[in-house]
Amino acid sequence: MLQPDYDTHRDNLIILDMTAERYLPQMLDELSLLGSRVPRLVILTQEERIREAGKKTLFHYPISDLLVLPAPGGVPIADMHLPFVLNAVGAALAAVWQTMPKVVDR
Questions:
Q1: Does residue 3 carry a pLDDT above 90?
Q2: CA-CA distance, 67 to 89, in Å (whole number)?
C-alpha cells in the first residue's frame, strides 16, 4: 500500500543502462520486469542496441524517456569505452539536476 504522501510522478525513477552489447538479453529481461511496474523509467542505450533488440520489443513497455547515444561514424561505442562515456553522461545529468528548481516538501 502506498503512503499518503507518496508521489508516483516524482518517486521511483529508474535509469536502465542498455548500452552494452554483452548484457542486452539480461537488460531486456529487466525491462520486461520493470516496464510494467515503474512509473518513471529512463532507458539509456545506443542506436545499435535498438536495432539489435528491435523497436517492437523495446517499445512494448511504457518508457518515460529514452536517451540514445549516437553511433560515431556509424559504429557503436565499444564496451571498453562505455564507462568513460557513461561517466560523462552521468556528469551531464547531475549538472542538469542541479539546475532544476527545488521543490519544498510540506
A1: no
A2: 10
Report the helix count and the strand count for the chain, using DSSP H and E: 4, 3
Q: What is the DSSP letter of 69?
A: E
Domain boundaries along the sequence of the chain: 13-99
Nearest to 46 by CA among 23, 67, 16: 67
Look at 2-11, 66-75, 78-87, 94-103 and tell me which has the smallest mean pLDDT.
2-11
Closest of 60, 13, 23 to residue 45, by C-alpha: 23
Q: Which residues contact 83 (CB under 8 A, 6 or more apart)?
A: none
pLDDT tens track for 32-88: 777 666 667 788 888 888 888 887 777 787 788 888 888 888 888 888 898 999 999
Alpha carbon of residue 85 to chain centroid: 14
Closest alpha carbon to 16 in 49, 50, 41, 51 = 41
What is the pTM for the complete model shown? Answer: 0.67
Cell numbers linked to 60 = 512494448
